[in-house]
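Subject: sequence -> structure tokens, single chain

Hey, anyone have a minute? Need the predicted structure for the following. Not urgent.
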Amino acid sequence: MKHLYRLAVTGMLIRAGLSGQALTSLSGTVTDPTGAVIPNATVVLENVERGTKRETVSDGAGRYAFLQVQPDVYRITARAPGFVDVAIERVELLVNTPATVNIRFEKVGAVAETVSISAEGVQVNTVDASLGHAL
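Reply:
Had a minute. Here:
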């Protein structure tokens, strides 16, 4: 009977240890050099040693978040149209300690966008004020 009791307690402890894996989270705000938020910026969380990457996009208020992240050392890279990419090296995420890392773009990058507009002119009658056509 004692053996069965020990076995049941050991099983519950093992199950609790496996289900309670320690994770953390990372969040922040993406801003430009003036402090204005940047929506739709791409933020990449990369674990260089393991070779894993996660990607998200900042919302309309410039906020981004990575939930349920394994604790480790990461690199954060951010890209936004019209700005030079930002890389933050060696961001250490600890067990059950949510981290906040705000990303600030410092330089405006070269804009490589071309807008091309073409239209053909419609011939306008400038001789008289007639609008009809002869049948």
